[in-house]
Amino acid sequence: MSSTAAAGALARFSLPSEPGNERLALRRVAEAVVDLGLSTDQLERLKTAVAEATMNAIEHGNGNRADVPVEIEVRQAGRQVVVEISDSGGDRAARAAAEEPDLALKLDGLQRPRGWGLFLIRNMVDDMDVASDGERHTVRLAMRVAGEAEKKGGRS
Amino acid sequence: MTSSCEVQVRQEPGAAVLSLSGEVDGSAAGPLTAAYGQAVRTGDGLRVILDFADVDYINSTGIALIVSVLAKARAEGRSVVASCLTDHYRHIFDITRLSDFIQLYTDTADALAEAHANFSG
Known about the structure:
The structure holds two protein chains of two kinds. By secondary structure, chain A is an alpha+beta fold. Helix content of chain A is 33%, strand content 26%. Chain A has five helices and six strands; from the N terminus they run E-E-H-H-E-E-H-H-E-E-H. Chain A has a six-stranded antiparallel sheet with strand order 1-2-3-4-6-5, with helices on one face. By secondary structure, chain B is α/β, with parallel strands linked by helices. Chain B has helices spanning 29-42, 60-75, 87-95, 98-101, 108-120; strands spanning 5-12, 15-24, 47-58, 79-83, 103-105. Chain B has a five-stranded mixed sheet with strand order 1-2-3-4-5. In chain B, helix 2 links the parallel strand 3 (47-58) and strand 4 (79-83). The A-B interface holds A 18-24, 41, 44-45, 48, 51-52, 55, 101, 103-104, 106-107, 109, 112-117, 119-120, 123, 155 and B 1-3, 23, 25-26, 57, 59-61, 63-65, 67-68, 70-71, 74, 86-88, 91-92, 95-98, 100-101.
């Protein structure tokens, strides 16, 4: 795992594309945002989104090739915390339109049990988008940093 | 980076308790499948209790494994309930609709009390 400081970023680091390394990613991101005032609920949701996006990058983007890194940048943009997760998977934007998971269909064997990753990401953060330049594939996650009043009100 | 999940099986009147610990991710496939098989092979109850008290991480692959256990249990006429989920993972059970099919209990004792009542009643 490599790490470099970047002006304006809270953290920027890369991870080998090995299954399980998503947990390193979520820990590093959690450390980077510790002073931003996220509620406990927001932090847990951000960690889940980061883990799922990193899993996708490791598996679908970089094909579990340890020598191809997943790059992660965390920064604050106004009242949002933004996490960008990039891999070398090129243009696979069509994956974002993958079939919506339906538990009833899965229980009836009409959908495979898997396929929850993008669903979880979309439901964990305030905004998510995907960009590709044909070589690099980047998932951008954004979560609004709650003010004091919002934090007292619980889930935002 | 390796990950790990362990599942202990305990038989109680009317229910089998599967106590999961560690991370419920791809590594849980073997232990969870084996534990479920042991639970239904050796138990006399129709309720399977998934106890998440010692679980600190569940990812989308883990959700898929829980879906598979639920599908198998339903096909066999068994109910699956869950206990000790954190607020975060209760939220995930809600948005995935798992909580429509898996009753959630704050603690395992409550889930067992209901199983005992049904078993003796």
